[in-house]
Amino acid sequence: MAASAEGDAEGSCAAERPGAGGLALLGLAPSAPSCPHGPALLFVKTSQGKEEGRRFYACSACRDRRDCNFFQWEDEKVSEARLAAREEYNRNHQPSFTHRQNVERYENFVLLPLSKRRFCQECQQLLLPSEWEKHSDHQFLCDISTAQLKSPSQLLYPLENKKTNAQYLFADRSCQFLLDLIIDLGFRQVLCVGTPRYSQFYTEDEFCHYNMFNHYFFGGEASRETCRKFLYQDNGERVIMVTDPPFGGLVGALASSFKKLMSMWKKTEKEGHNNQEMPVFWIFPYFFESRILDYFPSFSMMDYQVDYDNHALYKYGKTGRRQSPVRIFTNLTPSMIVLPVEEGYRFCAICQRYVSSGNQHCEICNSCTSKDGRRWKHCVLCKKCVKPSWFHCNNCNCCALQNHTCEKTDAGCFVCGKAGHKRSTCPSLSCTRTAYQGDEKQRKKTLKRVRMGICKRSAMKHAIFSRKKAKNKKKKT
Predict the structure, then answer these.
(1) Do 258 and 298 touch, CB atoms closer than 8 A?
(2) For the segment 352-394, what is each residue's pLDDT rounded down to a tens digit?
(3) CA-to-CA distance for 146 and 311, rounded, in angstroms?
(4) What does the alpha-carbon distance between residue 236 and residue 228 come to, in Å, rounded to a whole number?
(5) pTM for this one?
(6) I need a labelling partner for 145 at 20 to 30 A (CA). Which of 120, 171, 260, 431 fits?
(7) CA–CA separation, 128 vs 462, rounded Å?
């Protein structure tokens, strides 16, 4: 079964953890207002060392206000007229056809002879003969075969708006590996979360239009029930959820939705599910490991490099920082995930899992510690393994790149004079700014004196240099 996902964005729209400054995600409120993408998420603006700011609702799927400009303060009173206008706007910004209409169109389409099967490449839509005239000036494909209809990812153009719904497709290598792995593990039903625009090609029993950032089923309770029934087949025995979310999506929002899907599976009638989780393959970059494990402690990260056909960087076979950072996170026992030996993966008997060829077991950490495929080195001072290009910095008291900017300096903070932090993160910075603002004239005078001093020194240096130059000329003559 495929569950589509709204907002396949690549970049991040907000911070998730309060206290670091910026925007903090508070989650989905029970009475949250809605935009065209379903219930909005609740955020709060935070700043370093200050109390939380005013809370507000924003779109769960789009981080660019030009794609969805929904915004509402949490404590804002919205008039009846504005609510009515919003509901009408939301209705008008839904897909051209409902899922039911798409199913009917598909049924009529497959009855057509091959010569009359057309697909509009500009509108990304299957065309019936009565619609040809409307699309006469568009580019379209002819003679759409049954094989093409069964592989919609190869028929549809991947969307390219990185801030809203960029789509990257697995390379054949990764597709075949995942398919073989799922079959070898004995799973027969796959809940694919993150397959947008498949509504044209699948029936209502096979596809749900779903927003993975707010657990919203666009088809309402009927669509939710379809998903529930799918998870209940065979008492949930042989079902696995596979998800490849947008890498810029908020991990907290994704985790919340995934937990709710897993909870739907857990309510199956089979005995013994109480202490189990629905099997999951969450495909995501390795540098999100700590975030994912915060929400799912039972998960572990596999070393397998997932690569994509239409992504310039996420390619298999490259070395160093150029290789794909995308991995598989799963709650299955790691030893069950057999990685291809022909690609250099090997089994570590101590860790009881398959690892990449460059991932050497550290006896001190008692683990195969590499995350990016290179052999990492152990730092005695940090008490952990670090990247091979990192070195221990005594100022920062941790390992970092050799040309990094130190977090700690001997000189201390320029604002308060204390060591341990920079000026930009000084707790006293806000107070200092207030004092400066309270004596603006004095600050301007000081600044002017400093500038004048710099100008005078520069003029003096220039005059001395000119005199020396003149003397040298006289000596030569």
Answers:
(1) no
(2) 999 998 899 999 999 999 998 889 999 999 999 999 999 999 9
(3) 28
(4) 10
(5) 0.78
(6) 171
(7) 80
